[in-house]
Amino acid sequence: MNKLLYSFWSLLFMASIVLTTSCGTEEEDVTPAAPSITVTGIADPAAATANVGQAVSFTVSVVAPGGFNVIRVDKTVGTGATADYDEKAKDPGQTITAYSYSFTYTPTADVAGQDVTFDFVIVDDNGKQVQHTFVLTVNEPEMLNRTAVLLGGQKNTTQGSFYNTIDNAIYLMAAAKSNKEKVDFVYYYGATNKATIAAPTSQGAKEIYTATDLTGMTNTTDLVKVTTNFDAITKSSHITGVWAEKVNTSVADQVTDLKVGDVFAFQLASTRGYRIGVAKVTTIEGADYNSTAQKITLHIKMQSVDN
Questions:
Q1: 150 burial class (0-12, 13-18, 19+ CB within 10 angstroms)?
Q2: What does the pLDDT look like over 257-281, one tens digit per residue?
Q3: The pTM is what?
Q4: Bridge partners, 145 (sequence order)
Q5: What is the gyration radius of the CA atoms in the chain, in angstroms?
Q6: What's the pLDDT at 244?
Q7: Phi first, then psi: what are they for 228, rounded to 5°?
Q8: Range in 18-27, 102-111, 297-306 with the lowest mean pLDDT
Q9: Nearest Cα to Cα of residue 221 among 269, 183, 179, 188
């Protein structure tokens, strides 16, 4: 009798376990898998190298069983702070499980020589997310190094006073008028300002050469004296750094009372690509307002690409 009771209660206990397990399985909350990413259109989906001005493009394809919600893209330059770059979300009320995002980025001169990191974060409707990181190494562009740029003053009729920095061309007045859209700055020796490099739009230049002579020379070059070690500037990113230190200070349309050894930085007009350069005064001759021997020699280092 006892054996029968023992068997009965054993069977009852086992049945209760099966019943409990079965009920737990039916009530289990199973959410869809997290999103997945596939990158196409580029040889290496994790990293690439590009020159300044060279566009980099690829497609990020998302599969989200739980419903695509949003893709966020963050950008970090070098060791700097991370910033929002882009964001795309689904339309309200929409339920989709696949999404395609087209990415394009063109590096500019200010990120030359650095890694630019992009983090793509995809979130589904259940809050599950996946992240993909892409690192773009931006090549350092060539630095233009002009060791002897000789400009004449307003009284010098044989040496040009007008300078085209991009083509490294020096113009006398007649040639400057024929190339007015290329004149970035001029040299004059003023009674008060002394040795001066000025934008052709500056009031100082207009008083020396007259506004009529400078008609059509509309490049608004910005200039500022700096105390940087000129000899230590050996690559394009150094030039960018010099300007970055001064851009929020007193930049002007001319630098006056220049002396041998002085260094100034400049940024060209928008029509000239906002290129940046640094120049050192190496010689000054004819240091007199009325001298016909007025000359200045500059050593110029500047960017070879537009910003």
A1: middle
A2: 999 999 999 999 999 999 999 999 9
A3: 0.75
A4: 301
A5: 33
A6: 83
A7: -65, 160
A8: 18-27
A9: 269
